[in-house]
């Protein structure tokens, strides 16, 4: 399985290198359209190879997707944390009740059943 992963990564790397070599031409990126940039006095341009723009767009899309998904799943993580705290509190209460029952010498039927299971 490890060799299949290495073969896939090598093939992916070869494809990315071929794409980069085929798209070495320079492109000019501007921050704003020319009329708006002139109005705001914010003329920012940069010349980059096309493959940098392509790969940068892919990376930016992945990062935006990861952040979006992380924000979307926040409610599920919060619910899981709340349930985990609830379980911890109930386990602590159960142990306290078991200690009280042992100290008093009498056990509840439910607690006796729980002791028999564990």
Automatic annotation (TrEMBL):
Residues 73-100 form a coiled coil. Keywords: Cell membrane, Coiled coil, Membrane, Transmembrane, Transmembrane helix. It holds the Pfam family LapA_dom. The chain crosses the membrane at residues 48-68. Residues 44-94 form the Lipopolysaccharide assembly protein A domain. One of its GO terms (cellular component) is plasma membrane. It comes from the Bacteria. This is Lipopolysaccharide assembly protein A domain-containing protein. It comes from Thalassovita litoralis.
